[in-house]
Amino acid sequence: MLVKELTSKCLEKIICEVKTEENMTKIQTEVMDPLIHYTYKRIYPYFLITIVIFLLTFILALLIFIILVKKILKSDV
C-alpha cells in the first residue's frame, strides 16, 4: 500500500506541474511542434501521391462517363 500511495502522490504532483502554463508552453514548443513538423514532412509525399491518384481516377471516370453519354446520344438519333 505504501508504494501505491507514493506513486499516486508523485503522479499527482507531476500532473499538477505539467499543467502549469509555462510547462504547457514548453511542451508545445519543444516537443509537440517538432513532432508535428517531422510527421508532416514524412507523410507529405504520401498525401501528394494519394491526391494525384484520386484526381487521375476522377478524370478517367469523367472521360468514361462522357464517352458513354456520347454513345447513348448517337444510338438514339
Segments where pLDDT lies below 50 for 5+ residues? none
**In total, how many domains does the architecture comprise?**
1
Most strands sheet: none
Fraction of residues in helices?
Answer: over 70%
Number-wise, the strands total 0
Query: Averaged pLDDT, please?
Result: 94
Q: Gap between N and C termini, in Å?
A: 89 Å
Number of helices: 2
Rounded Rg: 28 Å
The shape, in one word, is: rod-shaped
Structural class: mainly alpha
**Helix and strand sequence:** HH
Proportion of residues in extended strands: under 5%
What can you see in these coordinates?
By secondary structure, the chain is an all-alpha fold. The chain has one domain (2-76). The chain has helices at 2-18, 21-76. The mean pLDDT is 94.
Key terms:
77 residues, mainly alpha, 2 helices, 0% strand
Write the layout of secondary structure elements.
Blueprint: H1 2-18, H2 21-76
What's this entry about, in short?
This protein has helices at residues 2-18, 21-76. Helices cover 95% and strands 0% of the residues.
